[in-house]
Amino acid sequence: MIDIASRVYNHNWKIDPIVRSLIDTDFYKLLMAQSVFLNKPKTQVTFSLINRARHIPLAKLIDERELRDQLDHIRTLSLSRGESTWLRGNMFYGKRSMFRAEFLEWFENLRLPPYHLEVKDDQYELTFEGDWPAVMLWEVPALAVLMELRSRAVLKNMGRFELQVLYARAMTKLWEKVERLRKVDDLLLADFGTRRRHSYLWQDWCVQAMMEGLGKKFVGTSNCLIAMRREVEAIGTNAHELPMVYSALAKSDKELAEAPYQVLKDWQDEHDGNLRIILPDTYGTQGFLERAPNWLSSWTGIRIDSGDPVKGAEAAISWWKSCGEDPSKKRVIFSDGLDEDMIAHLQSKFRGRVRCSFGWGTMLTNDFRGLVPDDALAPFSLVCKAISADGKPTVKLSDNPNKAMGPSSEIERYKRVFGVGEQVSQQIIV
Amino acid sequence: MIDIASRVYNHNWKIDPIVRSLIDTDFYKLLMAQSVFLNKPKTQVTFSLINRARHIPLAKLIDERELRDQLDHIRTLSLSRGESTWLRGNMFYGKRSMFRAEFLEWFENLRLPPYHLEVKDDQYELTFEGDWPAVMLWEVPALAVLMELRSRAVLKNMGRFELQVLYARAMTKLWEKVERLRKVDDLLLADFGTRRRHSYLWQDWCVQAMMEGLGKKFVGTSNCLIAMRREVEAIGTNAHELPMVYSALAKSDKELAEAPYQVLKDWQDEHDGNLRIILPDTYGTQGFLERAPNWLSSWTGIRIDSGDPVKGAEAAISWWKSCGEDPSKKRVIFSDGLDEDMIAHLQSKFRGRVRCSFGWGTMLTNDFRGLVPDDALAPFSLVCKAISADGKPTVKLSDNPNKAMGPSSEIERYKRVFGVGEQVSQQIIV
């Protein structure tokens, strides 16, 4: 049936917004924003877009006006009443009132700060500067906008039936993964795919497919808006930006060596149980664990986000044993570049030895590989990172040197302070 | 575009549920349920469907199997996580935590109790028996189911374009009312049309039309599910069932005379501000006000729900004056059989003298008069009332003898106790 009013309305859209809500973001961003709001509210940071896939000329593919329209639209967003109610009233990780009243009041009044956009060598140079708690909330929506604008740029040349067949194939592809994963015993899997998703609607579809297809093996999504609308758990703890910024602020090598642990000390003051998850790889997992203070061994688990995941999990197990802890009571969360094969492999390898769970990202929400000519919809590695704090550059070493970032002199200094030696490179797919 | 999966799924629906949520009900039902849960949780009540429009043979129009399927479906419903979160976290009437934890825990575990259904003289005899807090929650969904099944029975004989034109006309009709009401100065209008709506989707459309068309003149809806989804205020206070059941439980004429005030005493212990609204007409407004205790004059307002609304409002104004209260600071809520003409008339008559507001019901959400042959979609007066409490019959006198109910010997006794003399009959349209 033709609904003339809807059609006229649609014709007059200026833009079709990609991000329509401030909570269309990862849950851990909100937890971290609260932590920063309480501990380092005045730190001045710069976040910057980094396209690790230099061969994809984003500024040629995506129209600058469209990009600005989308970013400008995000700056008009504010927390809606229902969203605030959900943040206040919902149970997160078994706890009500996860967010403090003063933080929520700040969040309710927040509009995202200005952005700075330039074009250089067919790439966008997109940066955000200002107070850490506000600037950090740009990361996920900025990435989601660039990923979806790139999808749209490819899709707009396709015909109606071509499009229908494309999505039919993508759905079939995902459903086959779900059927495979359904057979993995004791699996616990969450959606971590917001930032590099194909599109919002597609991520929402993927979550619903997992809800139906995986039942209790699907434990939730990192996306707050989808968690709220689909009434599933919001999942996530913390990320590299905390140790990176704390480290940049360190005034001496001694303070620098302590910074990653100071992050977790502040975190421990606020959170317990399943929110006490160590992210050890910012400056090398091995050294981090060797120098870790005693109290850290009592934490609930470790997230493995770079390097060889088997080696990372084995390092965690050895460390727990050396501290007199029982690894089979500990959680290991794998979240780096997973696909269904790797998930099944890791689960069979570590099931029983530790409590495994999986944060499945880009290959869940953006696996359009092989579905269009020239693989023009294949996902790629785009990130948005804190590059400086109070005027000093940030550094990341990671367990994969291809993920390292920062000025080379600072990288050398960090390697010395954190005792990082030879590292094994791994190809970054997403 | 044809979505084969959706079509196959739709073909296999057993029923298309009319009520899909336990909060697809009036807000005042939840407030009253909490009050009853706290004050009279063990009172045994019987609620019964009453079709005041005897000329409409519901049992001939509506298939009994379909009715049972819908009622059975409602018995499978329970409060969802998101609904509970909303009830816990949302601000109602400017207050958070309107509902107590023990009530919400009870509500989260509630399934509606069994129903009893028989057919007699082409009418359905539908009754519900049990603990008051649970049984009372049948009223609104039972009415909504019967109203919508009657709509569907008429609609299923219509063709596709006929249907489209029908809704186009209904929308036009409502929009003309909205345009008329937009010009009424200082109007405050709420949707009270859940129980006798044409359908859920239509009520939801009406609310959205008022949001856009009336702006701040539209203050909210009595329907909790729509209030949650559309992020507007949930509106409502209390109803006749409280004085009716309290009165039935009275052990003497003296206790009976006190019962309507006892209701408000219990209410006052729990609520303040805009929730302190007197509903004076259960046993005659005039006598109720004459015998009212002093503390009642400090309440915020009065709801006029039967009789001549001008006379009712004038009686309230005189009473406030006699108590030394300033009527211009008091609220009068009109909620009986309103249409746009009456709303505009009452507003112009009482604006400035009192604070007016309007609860617009059936003629908002079910005005399909004149749109199909034989007026087969015109709304009619269907109610579901408490008819007994702990084995004793309930009585309602109202300010309109056509709305009176109860055994005639008891009606006479109540008239004597409450000093009700001659009353003026008014035609009941809805």
UniProtKB/TrEMBL annotation, chains A, B:
Family membership: Belongs to the NAPRTase family.
Domain Nicotinate phosphoribosyltransferase N-terminal: residue ranges: 23-146
The keyword Ligase belongs to this UniProt entry's keyword annotation: yes
Pathway: Cofactor biosynthesis; NAD(+) biosynthesis; nicotinate D-ribonucleotide from nicotinate: step 1/1
Residue numbers of Phosphohistidine PTMs: H240
Organism: Pseudovibrio axinellae
Gene symbol of the encoding locus: pncB
Free-text function comment from the UniProt entry: Catalyzes the synthesis of beta-nicotinate D-ribonucleotide from nicotinate and 5-phospho-D-ribose 1-phosphate at the expense of ATP.
Name of the molecule in the record: Nicotinate phosphoribosyltransferase
Catalysed reactions listed for this entry: 5-phospho-alpha-D-ribose 1-diphosphate + nicotinate + ATP + H2O = nicotinate beta-D-ribonucleotide + ADP + phosphate + diphosphate
Organism superkingdom: Bacteria
UniProt keyword terms in alphabetical order: Glycosyltransferase, Ligase, Phosphoprotein, Pyridine nucleotide biosynthesis, Transferase
Molecular function GO terms recorded: glycosyltransferase activity; nicotinate phosphoribosyltransferase activity
Gene Ontology biological-process entries: NAD+ biosynthetic process via the salvage pathway
Gene Ontology CC entries for this record: cytosol
Keyword Transmembrane: no
Enzyme Commission no: 6.3.4.21
Domain Nicotinate/nicotinamide phosphoribosyltransferase, chain residue ranges per copy: 189-421
UniProt PTM: Transiently phosphorylated on a His residue during the reaction cycle. Phosphorylation strongly increases the affinity for substrates and increases the rate of nicotinate D-ribonucleotide production. Dephosphorylation regenerates the low-affinity form of the enzyme, leading to product release.
Taxonomic lineage from the root: Bacteria, Pseudomonadati, Pseudomonadota, Alphaproteobacteria, Hyphomicrobiales
